[in-house]
Amino acid sequence: MSLALKLAGQGRDGVKANPMVGCVVVKDDRIIAKGYHQTFGEAHAEINALEQINHQANGATLYVTLEPCSHQGKTPPCAQAIINAGVKHVVIATLDPNPLVSGQGLAMLKEANIKVSVGLLEAEALTLNRGFIKRMQTGLPFVTCKIAMSLDGKTAMASGESQWITGEAARTDVQHLRAKNQAIVTGSGTVLSDNPLMTVRLDTSTVTPLRVVIDSQQQITDQTFNIFSDDAPTLLLNPGNSKILKNGKIDLADALKQLGKQGINTVLLEAGPNLIGAMIEAKLVDELVIYTAPLLMGSNANSMATLALDTMENKIQLDLSDIRMVGNDIRITANIKT
Fold first, then answer.
1. Which residues are catalytic?
2. Bridge partners, residue 118, by sequence
3. Is the pLDDT confidence value at 116 over 90?
């Protein structure tokens, strides 16, 4: 199953709205086939593995990171292919939250008298597809908020100057973070002050995340900014195409649901303190990745998030899941406690 999970991760760039899935077929204590879901709309992991052995798996055990599908979608049902191949035992890391599948693939296999085991390395499988799982369960993508700040929690000088807080190694790491997400969300203020490209600039990557600009006040009136370059697609969300709250701001939850309807599982939020604060207050941020540089920017500089917290009772607590050095900077990964 560990190998199947590694294989699944290789499909990150190609599966788009689909989950990443890996499959390994074992017979007589020997791996006889392996595969993963490579491209959206094409063969799933189980089919790619079974094709290596001409769909002949009599008496074999099949390990798969997600419950085999049982319905006819863009491809035929994998559960039926497993049955037809003669597999005797299927080991599934976790069930599929997709209501078209959930539990039905499992039932289909059991009805064919195939032994089924569920839960091997489930935590790892859930983490791998956390975006897909959240979108299936809530309609919302998984949101990671990236912040580059000084040791005293500042992200820009009062003038707006912010290049560069972190070092080159951290900035390269951010490119890898972008490559793991299907969309990058920012605010109109960041576009106006920094004119960023918001693209993945890695020689080894062909990923082009959708660039999304939240523009409640319709400040972005032309397409001369870098974010409208031909390097990647861009979606501008403003009062003309978005749900507006009573305070005149774009409904951020509805904006994320719009992305979810487009099959976007994962979003990277790279924005200024106002949008970051609003997303945190709306409980729309799932994870924080904070790059902390060994420098002080002073009390006049802008803080990492605009959060009007007046008492310790209102404090927001975090669960730290990873802390490591990236060059001379510290990268902290944390989840907001609910």
1. 46
2. 92
3. yes
| Confidence band, pLDDT 50/70/90 cuts, at residue 214 | very high
Exposed (0-12), middle (13-18) or buried (19+): which is 338, by Cβ within 10 Å? Answer: exposed
Of 26, 28, 19, 11, the C-alpha closest to 117 is: 26
State the pTM of this model.
0.93
Tokens encoding 208: 């082009």
SS3 content of the chain, % helix, strand, coil (to 5): 30, 25, 50
d(CA 111, CA 295): 63
Read off the pLDDT of each residue in 298-318 and give the average, rounded to a whole number.
Answer: 92
Residue with tokens 């924080």: 288
CB 319 within 8 A of CB 332: no
Alpha carbon 272 to its chain's center: 20
Q: Residue 25's beta-bridge partner residues?
A: 33, 62
Q: Which helix (H) or strand (E) holds 91?
A: strand 89-92
Ordered DSSP codes for 262-296: TT--EEEE---HHHHHHHHHTT---EEEEEEES--
Q: What is the largest CA-CA distance in the chain?
A: 70
The percentage of the chain sitting over the pLDDT mark of 90, rounded to a whole number, equals: 88
The C-alpha atoms of residue 187 and residue 220 are separated, in whole angstroms, by 10
Q: Residue 130: what are its φ and ψ, rounded to 5°?
A: -60, -35
DSSP 143-201: EEEEEEEETTSEEE-TTS--TTSS-HHHHHHHHHHHHT-SEEEEEHHHHHHH-------
The residues with which 150 forms a beta bridge, in sequence order, are 293
Answer yes or no: is pLDDT of 233 > 80: yes
Write down the residue that tokens 């993945």 correspond to. Answer: 200
For residues 21 and 44, the answer to whether their CB atoms sit within 8 Å is yes
- Are the beta carbons of 186 and 147 closer than 8 angstroms? no
